[in-house]
Structures are given as C-alpha cells and as structure tokens.
Amino acid sequence: MPDTNTSIEIRNVYKIFGRHPERHIEAVRTGGMGKAELLEKHNHVLGLNNVSLDIEAGHIQVIMGLSGSGKSTLIRHINRLIEPTAGEVIVEGTDVRALKPKALRDFRRASTAMVFQKFALLPHRTVIGNVVFGLEIKGVSRAEQMEEARHWINRVGLAGFEDRYPSQLSGGMQQRVGLARALANDAPILLMDEAFSALDPLIRVDMQTILLDLQEEVRKTIVFITHDLDEALRIGDRVAIMQDGELVQQGKPEDIVLSPATSYVEDFVRQVNRGRVVKVGALAKSVSGPPAALRIPGSLSLADAALRLVEAKLSFADVTDDNGAVVGRVGLDDVVRTLARSAGEVAAGEHIASEEPPARLAG
Question: Which structural domains are found in the chain, ordered by start?
Fold first, then answer.
C-alpha cells in the first residue's frame, strides 16, 4: 500500500524522445545504454533514465539541475503532458498513465495547476479575467469565480490591479497573476516549472517569499523546477538533483549540502553558506544524562545556533523538534567546525575563480 503521506509516486520512469522509442527502451533499461550512446547510434534522446521519486503531500519538492538534465521533462509526466516510455506515475492513488482522455482532462482540471516560466497569461484578458479562467472551464458560478479571484489577487499583492491587462504589468506582477490563477483553481498539486527564472533577482526573491508565505496557509503539494541552487535550498522541504536524465541525489536541503553524493552535486554545493542553509537539527546527536542548560529548536540555522550558544556562554545545548521534545544534543565545536568548513570552501572557490587562465597569462 502507498504511504498515505505520499502525494505523488514516480516509479522507474524512462522517457526516450525520437521516432521509435519502444525499439530502444530495453537497450537503456537492461543493456545500460546511456544518453550519449543512444543519441550517437540511434538518433534518439534519453530524457529520463529510471527516475523514481516519492513526493510528500503538503510539502515543497524542488527538482533542480542544469539545462538538459530532465527536470522539466519530469514535471510534465505528473499531469501527463508528456507520456513516459516506461514506468509509473501515481498521483494521489491514481495511475495517471491509465486515464482515458476525458478522465485525464478532469484530472488536470481538478488535481493539478501549473505555473510556467513565461507566465502564459491571456493578453486579451484583464488580471481578474486571467485568474477566473480555470474556474470558468470548471463551470463554477460567476459569483464564486469573482469571490475566489479577488481573494487570491489580494493574497498575491495585486489588489487594485484587477482591471489591468498583462501588457500593463511588470514581469513580477504578471507572475503573481499566474500564481493567483493556479491557486484559485484550488487543485491540491501545484506544478511550477522554472516559475521565477525569468525574473530579476530582487523580484525573484520577493516571489519566493510570497510562495513560502502562501504555503503556510494553503499547504499544497508543490513541485518546483529550478536550475538555481540558492532558490532550491531556500524554498524546498526536499530537493532532488538531476543530471543527464538521472536522479543523482534527493533529500532535505541540509542533507544535500552536508553529504553530496557525487562530484556533480559537490560542485553545486561547494560555495553554499552552510550557516544559512543547514539546520542545527542535522547535527544533533543522541545523548543520555541530565538535560542541558539551553534548549534550541532544530529548525534554527547553524549561524543562529552558534550565536545562541556564544551569548549563553555554553559549549552545548539540547535540540528540540517542532513539538518541543528533545531529539538530541549539539556542541558549539561541531557547529563552528561545520561553519568553518563552509567558509574555507567558499574562500578556496573565490581564490580559484580569481586566478587568470594560463592561456591569458601567456597572451
């Protein structure tokens, strides 16, 4: 039986792009043929290679990787915009591959909503006209459409802009309209494909904050695609990293940062500020004996935990979970050691980046 806390189950999914993918699936699945060989010998592209992923209900799952890694291909399997060559996609107990056309349309309308990188707004409709669009398709009454639309327009900070057209809005405002439209549909699953990638850095951070604030309220299952590690670590409850169509590591942000599984992941996280990303709960160790003089929540960042310990003039503290129960103990030396490792790697990276390439020196 599937875990009741699992909203989406992706099981051994393969995707081959080309005229005859079925002819080559066994060579990939059992013969070990990789992306480069498949392209060279058969002129087919291996988009996904045996990807399995459980996505927890009510949480933000980030899928990240460089261009061509397969992350956008994967998210489009969830609502079957792309058909898998092999494998299973189970969404809230429904086998998406088995859905007939009408059932698939109903599934897309009721179970998923999507926010795109390019906003995908209807240019001839106003803000409120765009937000109610999905509700119109679902046959919701006009009064309910307007009530829902105005609520979400207000929640994303666009009150007063209801009658503006997309061409009259900035990029960040247009993306807020796209988010409001998705939320108005009240689908339990929100699919966001590079949703903030086209935005300027400051606007992008603002949109991340809006998303996190809204998630505290709505508790959707959100699948968020990005190529930006800082974005992934900031918003993801869990992060999955893809390379050449394969899922190479998945886990909590601090797991990815502290224990990169491959050199590819290690390169990604090399200059991450562990003091900001890693939570002190990740360093907690089981102990016995009397309680410590200080308790700190496991959700506290390493930097904040170090400050608490230094201010209290203590060398260790008990770490608690969200309910206040002690789950372990952390020492100041462990926190400082982890922070120092991060600082050392950042400094090394900056030193390497500052060096002139030999060819340039010679020229």
Answer: 99-236 (3.40.50.300), 274-354 (3.10.580.10)
